[in-house]
Write a structure and sequence with these properties.
The protein has 588 residues and is an alpha+beta fold. The protein contains 16 helices and 15 strands.
Length: 588
Amino acid sequence: MAAPKKGRRPAGGQSRPGRALALILIAMVALTGGMFWSGHTTPRLGIDLAGGTSITLKAKADPGQESAVNETNMNTAVDIIERRVNGLGVSEAEVQTQGRENIIVNIPRGTNEKQAREQVGTTAQLYFRPVLAVAAAAPQPAPTATGSASPKPSASASAPTASDKSATPTATASTQGRALTEALKAPSPTPTGSASPSSSATPKATGTPQATPTPDPASAALEQKFTTLNCLDPKQRTAAGQGVKPSEPTVACGKNAIDQWEKYLLGPAEVEGKDVDDAKAALDQQTGQWIVDMEFTSAGSKKFQAITSKLSQQSEPQNQFAIVLDGEVVSAPRVQTTLSASAQISGSFNQQSAQDLGNILSYGALPLSFQTQSVDTVTAALGGEQLEAGLIAGAIGLGLVILYLVVYYRGLSLVAILSLGVSALLTYVIMALLGPAIGFALNLPAVCGAIVAIGITADSFIVYFERIRDELREGRTLRPAVERAWPRARRTILVSDFVSFLAAAVLFIVTVGKVQGFAFTLGLTTLLDIVVVFLFTKPIMTLLARTKFFGDGHPWSGLDPKRLGAKPPLRRTRRTTAPAGPVDPKEA
């Protein structure tokens, strides 16, 4: 008889449980350590559990443009509203569409309801303002004037384009004051040319000697506001441009090309968002870089031509125009030449950033407005009562499952309980980490999904245990029964979990709002069920099969062959033959 080849494991042979157990132990330690390192040791609670404000907005199109209420425009509106709500310092807010024409804004406890209503319910304000000065985000001490001349503007022989903003020189205090004075006292858009930092604003000649101009209190106040503005403070960023009319100069914050905050001193608005006819991201075929193409209305073309004609003759940073959305500078391109009906914004864009800017510019031309349908205040006490009731229901369900396992499976129930504990720990830690990572919030439907997952996880253990018992009933001992039962149980578990995960995925895609929390939790726990069964339950069973208590089929192990009605082992018997010799006549 040929000896079996070495190194090849026969079918149903023993596995190596230590590796799988070590792998899941490392994963548990790493995830738990990451949870404590991040400082978020509890899952983030949704508005129904933490309390807060829920605002429902309904989109309304301008007469004759009902088709404007579409998926693209609604998603753009969601992005704008989310930026606005985040400006209130509420990074945990949820903004999402519901149906075709509704937007739901959930703001957790801690945000003023009146302020939230004002910020969320109003239409986004988009303006094009000339840049008068740019400075670092935090207040800087005013540098001493040196009298050096400002750089001359460079002529451009290229096609009419506007390049995206980048880091610009910090304006001195004298430059800021001069620029602000010119913005307040020079209503004509006629360019005045570049001036050195040491020069002062010169009023129009009237034929009489001019006296030293009296400082304008409004100019001094705005200059002081610009000097003291700290764009690193979210509250100051939000309040910087509030309550300012389009016809007035203002200050604002924005990020430059290297994603650093800067503060801007801006002139009166020259072009409004409604003057933009269309804007979209495109790939420049010559340079291979992403750009943003803008198209203006007939009235907007005249305004844009006037402002770019003025800016193209100015020195940096006065040759920039800021695109201001809700008081924040989203882009500040430089003007190289006079532009009119169309323009291109180029710079350090990727596809996503170019599309985001195109959507923002297009939003100014959207014939959409939003009407506040309802503002509901959810108290934390109500959510706490519902959570308590849900947890009690979950504890009762878990207790009944454990009682059933103990009565029916006896010693095997220890494996099931340990597996449920590992699954619960992984679920809790991952939920705590997903809060700050992707904004996952634990709401009541999500809690229900976790409770339902108890039954799904327990079902996997039962399938495996029954397969092992079937092998024992066939007369096999426990160690080979554990290994031979695994392939059949594994196939059944994977098919069952795949169906559950598919149902959760479909539910997550086709639903909105809190139901998605149920679907997400159900899908997450289904995936964790596979991980726990493969890396914990099966290896633990392999190790327990080597012990005397389980291996010998102790009556309390749940694997007693006699209680299971096991068949006796099949043994081959030799056939006996009578010895050759005379036959007895009596026997014949």
